[in-house]
Amino acid sequence: MVTFPPQPAIRLRAAVIGHGRRRVAGPIDLDLARNDFLVIAGPNGAGKSTLVKTMLGVLPPLSGSVERRGIRVGYVPQRERLDEIWPFSALDIALMGRVPALGPFRFLGKEQRRARELLAQVGLEAEADRPFRSLSGGQQQRALIARALVAEPDVLVLDEPTNHLDVPGERAVWSLLGEIHRRQERALVAICHHLAPALLHATRVAVLRDGGLVSGPPEALIEAGALGDLAEDTILRKAAP
Amino acid sequence: MTDAGISFWEASFLWRDPLIAAGLGALLCALAGTFVVLKRSAFVGAAVSQAAGFGVVGALLAPHVVGIEVPPLGAGILAGTASAGLFSLSRRGGRVGVEASIAIAYVVAGAGSLLLGTFLTHEYESVHSLLFGDAVAAPPEELVALGATSAVVVLLHLAFGRKFLFVSFDPETAQAMGVPIRRYNAALYFSAGLSLAVATRALGALPVFALTVAPAAGGLLLFDRLRRVLAWAVGTALASALVGYYLSFVWEKPTGAMIVLCAVLALVPGAARRALGR
Q1: Given B176, B223, B226, which is nearest A75 (Cβ)?
Q2: Is residue A206 helix, strand or coil?
Q3: Contact between A86 and B169 using a beta-carbon 8 Å cutoff
Q4: Which chain B residues are within 8 Å of A88, Cβ to Cβ?
Q5: How far apart are CA A187 and CA A185, in angstroms?
Q6: Which residues of B touch A99 (CB under 8 A)?
Q7: Which of A97, B38, B65, B227 could staple A147 via S-S, CB 3.0–4.6 A?
Q8: Distance CA B79, CA B76 (A)
């Protein structure tokens, strides 16, 4: 009997990515397997966010194809982009993860237990009723991860999840993401600048540079020297248990 | 009780309809205001009332220019709502930005009304009344417009309120998670534009602007939960409209100005709390 490997959650073929008519990078071939933990790295302006938005279908490719096979997406934005004028609690934030699937005249009362469970899973059980704006940067990031998980996503996408966090906060977020990846059958995609702590958990790395993309397991990219000026991070990778 | 107080209750046939109109207008302003203040687009209220005025002047000119009778109330509501729809097309962080779009709409509609108004010298009084409302009187068609608009807006918020909040707070995530953000943003601005255009006709531009901004801002200064902010905004807007109307009657002062004065008082508890550092 012949068995076929599972279909990737997202597949890019000869995809040229960009905004409007402006090409940013490509052509790109990339498969995101359903249990991948893919870290996307590269210098500023290389097109990391554009690539992720193209993968999610927010931006169409300029040419080539992007296939998504009935996947549900959970998204974690850069928290600095959120306006703190909004009077939401951590629980309100987590509950928003259910909103995309919410029909007209439906309310979120029944979803509260699940949202509290996920807040507990990210270590915010005691902070559920605290105002989101009064949480620390790391706690806000965890609340946003809980919101994305409430959507029960097949693919969890994070845009620079450790920006402006101190070193312990950064490590804690990557540990949490590694735990989520190990515990649950879902793909994770994270954009990051500081590769060292991410490499401890990623199963694949994609490096965008000079309009092209190189991807593979972290060890293979390190061996091939594909991380370029990110290479000093490999020291930490090798030193990791 | 003073003579003035007694005469107020005796004169209920005079104030019953205007008071109902003021209450409904205040409800509409508070609902729209909570969103526009949170979206940092507080001047939507001023721009919508200017655009509604432009529609009214256009409707009054229509019989002279193209020989067609256009109902001024409907034209004002249409122009106000359309202007709010245009604001929804401006992107936060875009090259021009929502605030600049609102400011441009405000000055273009204001200048347009003034210019076109010069051709309506014989209808100055009716233009002024239609532009800036008249909180002292409420004809039946105005009450119907306010009641219908309140029903539409409340239903819209009950049906899609959570989606309105999501696309307003975090459009990037909403879009990534498959929510059609332009559609919901347009519906939200449509409901705000409709509310403010109808309320402007009933209460006047200045009270509408005050009831849009001050109660919501007062709630934000006081509370950390959206439900409480909204309750404060609706409660104080209603109280401002009703108390302002009553005081204007008994003290024989301009109704709009008294409503504005009461609305500004909604800021006092929050401002005091901030000043005390609590």
Answers
A1: B176
A2: strand
A3: yes
A4: 169, 226
A5: 7
A6: 162-163, 165-166, 174, 179
A7: A97
A8: 5
Q: What is the largest CA-CA distance in chain B?
A: 64
List, in order, residues 6 or more apart from B55 with CB less than 8 Å away: B72, B75, B76, B77, B78, B79, B80
Which residues in chain B touch residue A131, judged by CB atoms under 8 angstroms apart? 224-225
At A190, give phi and psi (nearest 5°): -130, 130
Cβ–Cβ < 8 Å for A43, A68: no
Name the CA dihedral angle for B26, B28, B29, B35, rounded to a multiple of 10 degrees: 140
Q: Report yes or no: B40 at the A interface, CB cutoff 8 Å.
A: yes
What single string gives the DSSP state of each residue in A83-143? -TTS--BHHHHHHGGGGGGPPTT--SGGGHHHHHHHHHHTT-GGGTTSBGGGS-HHHHHHH
Summarised one tens digit per residue, pLDDT across range B201-217 is: 888 888 999 999 999 99
Residues A121-180 pLDDT 10s:
999 999 999 999 999 999 999 999 999 999 999 999 999 998 878 888 888 889 999 999
Order of strands, sheet of A10-19, starting from the edge strand that comes earlier in the sequence: A22-32, A10-19, A63-68
B226–A53 CB contact, under 8 Å: no
Q: Do B174 and A99 touch (CB under 8 A)?
A: yes
Q: A48 and A40 in contact (C-beta within 8 Å)?
A: yes
